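Look at one such:
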Amino acid sequence: MDNMTLALLIGLGFALVLGALTARSSARRSKIYGGTLAHVFHYIGAAGAVGVLPTVLASLILGQGFLRAVVMGLSFMAVGLIALVLFAMIEHPARPKLSP
């Protein structure tokens, strides 16, 4: 297994574990009304955001170079951003209206 794949697997491992903890903490603070699909996109978004640092650090430690580390980090952020935009599209119409 090459070092780039190893760095990606390390980042994904951290993202899966820490993303679950982050998504659960966030959902506890603010209720999610959009159903199962909203929970899935919320988890993917949290995992993408949390997995950036371990992926970048692992790729730098494994000698992949600064440019590859930045590209891998931006890739994780892009996946997280897309997932959170999809989450917002599902969640916004499901939120109850607050009456004044």
Observations:
- Helices lie at 3-29, 36-50, 52-61, 66-94.
